């Protein structure tokens, strides 16, 4: 008879969350190569053996964070459905992506660092699950264009542009704030601009 896996205690869950939070901070600031288990342990306030009790290696922690980040990014894309106003759904998607860049900048930078390194840990997912989801939503966007519900647009490059424009505000936040100067809310201003941009682009 197979023994059921034991449930984690409250302390174990807390320690796992501490490790992941500390690792996210270190990886997003230093990249994978520049981060060590010792740095993660110090940031988490735990010993190195304690960290390795929960995660077998630095790579294991990194993959767990990447998978969580990717799942978060994919959630609003999955919410685009055939029902409802086409342009409103795409605008809502762009707004949600911008909100995620505002609320989860470290996750965005972690993901960007992985892509810049050639996506060694995410390549199978990018060419599998992500590609399949993009193809599904691209077919829907193409259908909306054919029906005259939105202007003719290349669906995949539309999605690429939304990713690039929204995640820029997380990945290059220091630059954005330096250029805008004091008294500006980059994300509030970006939301107005992106709404105008995509509404005009998608108007049939």
UniProtKB/TrEMBL annotation:
The keyword DNA-binding applies. Transmembrane segments: none annotated. Residues 13-73 form the HTH tetR-type domain. It comes from the Bacteria. Keywords: DNA-binding. GO terms for biological process: negative regulation of DNA-templated transcription. Residues 36-55 bind DNA. InterPro entries: Homeodomain-like_sf (IPR009057), HTH-type_TetR-like_transc_reg (IPR050109), HTH_TetR (IPR001647), Tet_transcr_reg_TetR-rel_C_sf (IPR036271), Tscrpt_reg_YcdC_C (IPR013573). PROSITE patterns: HTH_TETR_2. GO terms for molecular function: DNA-binding transcription factor activity; transcription cis-regulatory region binding. The keyword DNA-binding applies. It holds the Pfam family TetR_N. PANTHER family: HTH-TYPE TRANSCRIPTIONAL REGULATOR RUTR. This is TetR family transcriptional regulator. It comes from Paracoccus shanxieyensis.
């Amino acid at each position: 008879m197979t023994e059921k896996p034991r449930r984690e205690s409250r302390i174990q869950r807390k320690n796992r969350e501490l490790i992941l939070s500390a690792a996210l901070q270190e990886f997003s600031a230093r990249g994978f190569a520049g981060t060590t288990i010792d740095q993660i342990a110090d940031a988490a306030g735990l010993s190195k053996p304690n960290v390795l009790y929960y995660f077998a290696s630095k790579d294991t922690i990194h993959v767990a964070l990447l998978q969580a980040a990717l799942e978060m990014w994919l959630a609003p894309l999955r919410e685009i459905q055939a029902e409802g106003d086409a342009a409103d759904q795409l605008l809502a998607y762009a707004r949600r992506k911008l909100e995620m860049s505002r609320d989860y900048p470290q996750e965005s930078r972690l993901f960007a660092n992985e892509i810049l390194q050639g996506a060694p840990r995410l390549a199978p997912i990018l060419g599998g699950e992500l590609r399949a989801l993009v193809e599904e939503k691209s077919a829907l966007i193409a259908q909306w264009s054919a029906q005259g519900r939105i202007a003719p647009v290349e669906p995949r490059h539309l999605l690429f542009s939304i990713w690039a424009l929204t995640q820029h505000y997380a990945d290059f936040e220091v630059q954005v704030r330096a250029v805008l100067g004091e008294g500006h809310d980059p994300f509030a201003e970006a939301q107005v601009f992106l709404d105008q941009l995509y509404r005009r682009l998608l108007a049939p």
